[in-house]
Amino acid sequence: MKLKILFVTKYISGSLPKEFTYHGEWTDSYELILALKKVYPKLKIYLLTPKIRKEHFKRFNQEFGEILKENNIQHYFIDAYLDYGMPSTLLRWEFFKKEKELIQKLNINIIHYNQFQPNCCYAFKKQLRLKKIICYGCYGEKKEGEWRKKDKKYKNKLCKTNTVTKVKRMIKKLPLQLFFRFLRLKTFDKRVDYFVLKNPKGYELMKQKFKDLNIIYIPKGQTNPLKIKIKVLEKIKNILFIGNLYYGKGIIDLLKITEMFPDIKFNIIGTGNSEIKKEIQKIAQKNKNINFLGSVSYYEKWHAYLQNDLLLHPSYSDAFPSVILEALSCGLPVITTYEIDSPIKDGENGFLYHAGNSNELKKKLNFIQHNINIYYQMSKKALETAQRYTWE
After folding, report:
1. Integer CA distances (angstroms), 381 to 111, 238, 347, 368, 378, in order
2. Structural domain boundaries, residue 260
3. pTM of the entire structure?
4. Does 100 share its domain with 51?
5. What is the CATH number of the domain that holds 315?
6. Three-class SS of residue 319?
């Protein structure tokens, strides 16, 4: 029997309104699918995601769609876009309808969710003749802070819809909630064959909290297409930030320290909160060492890493972010926070500081500026670390 795998992910570039965004869950899914196809070329792989918006379809196709077609990976869509205002119950229902159709039509053996959220397929595993259900993702304790309140407030603005739409969604939502409760989806964990964790701290935490589940750890990878040579620097000239522009990513902390280092150019790549973008542009008018690049394509980002000397990832909460692995694979030491789950060891392949502590961050940057002789060894360690994290 030939194995047929259906990959299901609710995050995908081009499904959110306005800007073309890159969500880590989507790029992880995309890279994992291509890596599997490379190792097992005869494996039948199918992909299910929300729809791509018309204004983003051309860009999505250029960056991802054509590669999926070249690798004979069929991409299917649910009848819904990803939207901050869409209740998760309705999105879950749209996924289930399409999952059920594809499982029966394509004779799917394995369904792979890039999330830990329950879905109806768990309840109908036997009826759908699924051999395995796999959930792949990150796990961690939810952290609170002023940054989370600000991010939530901004996303709530994006969720605003007219009264008619709200009423329609409410009418659809209520019976579905009762249906999900009837299926006892809160016990979905008993029907999942494997919970695969891609962040080590999350793996240890989940093993402690859920001892009866089949939990395994498979680290996420990176697929750097470039040949890397370790740089010999006389001083740090360029520092890169790449990520979504939200308060939780620590972007405001980065902006605070830019004027302390006038000889360093801070290159910022990302999309997200329009209020933060205005703040960046405002400060950039005063501090000429800020270079806001906005959105950069999935493949162009690799050249951005090569043009910089360090990656700064000042996040308050993250589970093994892809940008850190990508930077390490380009030989870039990384400055990030103790609060996130990452392979950075302070003083070896980068530096760690406590999130929100600008003075501590300043000291770390000053240290490497005045001890540039350690850069070569740190860059070498960065590459060694990245070699332990490949999709293959």
Report:
1. 37, 20, 10, 15, 5
2. 238-386
3. 0.88
4. yes
5. 3.40.50.2000
6. strand
